[in-house]
Amino acid sequence: MEESHGINGVDDSYRHLPVLYLTFLSIWSLSACSWTVNTFKNRHFQTNSLQWTLASVPLIKALQLTLSFLFWHSCFHHQICSLWMSFGVYVTGVLFQTASFVSFLLISHGYCITCERLSLTERRTTASLGCVFYLTLVGYRASVPYFAVLLILNYMISFYVIFHHIAQNLSVLREQLSFIEDENVQAMHGAVYTKYIMFKKFQGAMQIVAMAETVIYMNMDNSSHNYWIRLLIREWAQFCIFLYIG
């Protein structure tokens, strides 16, 4: 089903969007290909489910950007704005954010970093938070009453869980480093220290994510004026965060 609009029916402030989406599509596609190829090449050296989980995130983002580009390009150059394509953008956007947060939760638990598998409780907690996050995000995007409050509450709980587990893992790794130094077991020092630095960087990245999400949801300006600038900042922030984590 499609809705046709004349070129004058589309706000001119959105004219920059096709080029913007195409640019980020190229960036995310290269990132997705690089991540996938690297994970595939290293599959013989380590069976790391986390890497494959993370590799799916840029693929979902690339799909969202593809649909976004096609939608806006069609609107401006063919005067056809597809309802189904806009729905695809909506769905893939929700999936991207959900997959991102599930990945963050897995990393914070130390999955494939400090432990080979999660406990039953950790798996249930991660699955529950992921499902609730998805549903509240759908409700929020659909402008369902009170879902904004539920989404904020879900963000608070998710970030609490993430930072709590990061702190736990850092504490354990500090104890291990202290033990290694006391016992002078230098063979293990490099691997443990690498994991410690990894979690410290991830902690910093999550602090940036928390601040970015706070700024995004505190910005109540839904006007089309300079929308492309806000979109540019948001897309760059998302890419830089994943590049840093990756």
TrEMBL record:
Keyword Membrane tagged: yes
Keyword set, alphabetical order: Membrane, Transmembrane, Transmembrane helix
Transmembrane helix in keyword set: yes
Transmembrane portions of the chain: 20-40, 52-72, 84-112
PANTHER family: TRANSMEMBRANE PROTEIN
Protein name: Uncharacterized protein
Organism: Noccaea caerulescens (Alpine penny-cress)
Organism ancestry: Eukaryota, Viridiplantae, Streptophyta, Embryophyta, Tracheophyta
